[in-house]
């Protein structure tokens, strides 16, 4: 959807979501007067359980995110992506795996940035330190993807119950490093 305009302020998320007054949208407009905003809708796997860790499910979700985030350079220029816990609330997806899939998809789609709203989810307290850890090692999208696939295989086989961040970077949990929440 091209040119979406915000009219309302709000508080909360999910069942706590509430209207909190009018909003004046001051975003820039394009050559035809539309707000420089794009809204995408991407379906998610419903209650995927362990099937979300199967290679075909990972590829499905990564492809959907990539297609949704893909740039049209003639129209969008240097726009970033603002997103959140796609497919993780009532849909039951693994929030740590989903955030990494979205990060990789936005990177491959050449988005200028990814602004990730955690909505205070405890499972994402280590997102900032995790991203810093990956960036310090200068890992490519392919290297991170390989770790997601490896982790997911271990989940399917029942070899780990750890979250992805803890599985990949146990030091983040042992040393209690950081609590950043945005990429």
From TrEMBL:
Question: Pfam families recorded for this chain?
Answer: PARG_cat_C
Q: Write down the species.
A: Castilleja foliolosa
According to the UniProt entry, the coiled-coil residues are none
- Transmembrane segments annotated in the record for this chain: none
Taxonomy, superkingdom: Eukaryota
Q: What is this protein called?
A: PARG catalytic Macro domain-containing protein
> PARG catalytic Macro domain location, by residue?
1-125
- Mind telling me which InterPro entries this protein's record contains? PARG_cat_C, Poly_GlycHdrlase
């Amino acid at each position: 959807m091209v040119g979406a305009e915000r009219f309302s302020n709000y508080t909360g998320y999910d069942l706590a979501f509430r209207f909190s007054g009018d909003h004046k949208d001051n975003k820039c407009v394009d050559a035809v007067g539309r707000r420089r905003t794009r809204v995408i809708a991407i379906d998610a796997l419903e209650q995927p359980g362990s099937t979300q860790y199967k290679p075909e499910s990972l590829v499905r979700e990564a492809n959907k995110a990539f297609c949704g985030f893909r740039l049209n350079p003639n129209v969008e220029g240097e726009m970033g992506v603002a997103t959140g816990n796609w497919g993780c609330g009532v849909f039951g997806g693994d929030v740590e795996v989903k955030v990494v899939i979205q990060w990789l998809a936005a990177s491959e789609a050449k988005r200028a940035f990814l602004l990730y709203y955690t909505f205070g989810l405890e499972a994402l307290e280590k997102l900032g330190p995790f991203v810093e850890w990956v960036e310090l090692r200068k890992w490519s999208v392919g290297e991170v993807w390989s770790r997601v696939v490896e982790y997911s295989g271990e989940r399917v086989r029942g070899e780990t119950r750890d979250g992805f961040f803890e599985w990949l970077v146990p030091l983040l949990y042992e040393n209690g490093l950081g609590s950043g929440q945005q990429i």
